[in-house]
Amino acid sequence: MKLSVVIPTCNRDNLLPDTVRILSERLQKEWPESEIIIVNDGESMNEDNRKFYIKYHASIIEKGHRGPSYSRNTGAEASSGSVLLFLDDDIDVLPGAIASLFNQFTDGTKAVVGRIIHKIESDDDDVRQFILGKENHMDEIRKTSKNNLPFEYGRSAMLAVTRDIFLKIKGFDEKLDEYYAWEDIEFCYRVENQTTIKYEHKAAGNHKWHVPSLAAYLSRCEDSAKSSVQVYLTHDNPRIATITGVGKMRGISGYFRYFRRLIFYCFLSVCALFLGRKLKQKVIHQKVILTKMKSIINTLNVKNA
Length: 305
What we know:
This protein is an alpha/beta fold. It is built from eleven helices and eight strands. The chain is globular and about 60 Å long.
C-alpha cells in the first residue's frame, strides 16, 4: 500500500522546506512506500529550493495561481499511491503521525482527518488567544466523535483518503478556489456521503500560523463567508444551510439578524471599556460573527443580481 503526499504551496519558501524535510524523515521510518508531490501555485521556485526538495525525494509540479483545490487535484492526478494524504505547506508532522495513519488504512478505513496543533504567532495576544480557544474547542469535538467525524470538522491541513474515494467524488471543487476556505469542508461533505470519516488524534502536526492582527483574521473570515455561500448554493439542503449559516441570512430576515447582532456588539464594546479583558474575547467573537454575516449578505446580493 503506497502513500502519496500532496502539498499545495504558494510563495511559502520560509515554511515549506521544514515541512518537506520533516515529512521525508517521518515517511522513511513510518511509511517507506511513499512519495511527496509538491504543487507550486505561486511564483516559480528558484533553483536552490528546487534542489533542496529533490534532495528529500519530492517531485515538483509548477502550475501557478490556480488555487488550492486545483493544486490538490493536480497532485492527486500525478500521484500513484492507493492512499492520498493532503498536507498543508506549514505543517510539521510529529513522530508517529504517519504510522498512525498507516494503521488506520490497513484496518480498512477510507478517510482520516489528523490532529492539527496550532502554533499561532500574532502581534495581538487577544486575537491569538481567541483563535486558540476556538480551535481547541473544535479539537475537543473531534475527539468525542473519533470514529464518525461530522464533515464540518474536516480540514485539509492533514487529510487522508483512499484513491477510490477521491476518484468517486471527483476530487476537490475548483469553483471554490475563487475565495479562501471551505473547499476542504465541502470535500469532506462529499466524502461523508460515501464513507465514514475518522479522526486520528495521534496523527498530529504542528501548524505554524502567523496572524498579524485582528484585521488580517477578519479578512480571512470575510473570504471564508463568501466561499460558504458558494457551498450553500451548490448543496442546497438543510444541513448545509445550518452549518454555513447562509440559510438564515437570506432575504429581509438576514438584515434584521445582522442589525440585531450589531446592536449587541456595540453594547458589548461599551461594556468592555469598563471591564477590560474580561469581555475582550466576547467582543472579538461578535466582531467575527458580524464580519461573516455582512459578507454572506453582500455575496448573496451579488449572486442574486
